[in-house]
Amino acid sequence: MSQLHQIANLVGLISANRHQFQKIFQNAEDYTRAEIAMKVIKPFTEHWKMNVLVNSVLDSFEDMNHVDETLLKATQFFKTCDRLELDDIYNEKMLVNGKELMSIMNRKPGAWMKKLNDYLKVWQYNHQGCTKEDMLKHIETLKDTF
C-alpha cells in the first residue's frame, strides 16, 4: 500500500471516529484500559498517536481560545496511556486461541466463539499482566454463560 493511500485511510478512520475519540479524550480517567485500547489505539495500530495529535489540532481549530488546554489534555492523555502501558497494545495477542476455546468449552465453532473472544479480549486488556493460566481459570467460570 502506498504511503499516500495509507494516509488517506488514516484520515478517513480519524474522521469516522472523531466523536467517540472526543468523549474518551475529554475524560480518559473515566474509561477502562480495554475501552481506551479498543476505541482509540487498536483501530489505528502504530498510528494511534497520530490520531491523538490530529484530533488535538482539530479541537484547537474549533476552539482557538483553548489551545493550551487542548495541548494539556493531549499530554495528560499520553501520560494515561503510558501509565496503563497501552503504547503497543495493538500487537498483543490473545492468550487463548480458538482451538483451545473449543476444547475447553467442549463445543463446535459458532457464533458463541466471537462473543466469547470479544469478552475475553476485554477481560485480558483489563487484567494487565494476566497469564494464560489466569485466563484458562476465568474461562472455566464462563462455561454456563457462553
TrEMBL record:
MF terms (GO), sorted A to Z: ATP:3'-cytidine-cytidine-tRNA adenylyltransferase activity; CC tRNA cytidylyltransferase activity; RNA binding
GO annotation (BP), single: tRNA 3'-terminal CCA addition
Record has RNA-binding as a keyword: yes
PANTHER family with a match to the protein in the record: CCA TRNA NUCLEOTIDYLTRANSFERASE, MITOCHONDRIAL, TRNA-NUCLEOTIDYLTRANSFERASE
Superkingdom per UniProt: Eukaryota
Keyword RNA-binding assigned: yes
TM spans (from-to): none
Entry-linked SUPFAM superfamilies: Poly A polymerase C-terminal region-like
Protein name as annotated: Unnamed protein product
Keywords noted in UniProt: RNA-binding
Organism encoding this protein: Ambrosiozyma monospora
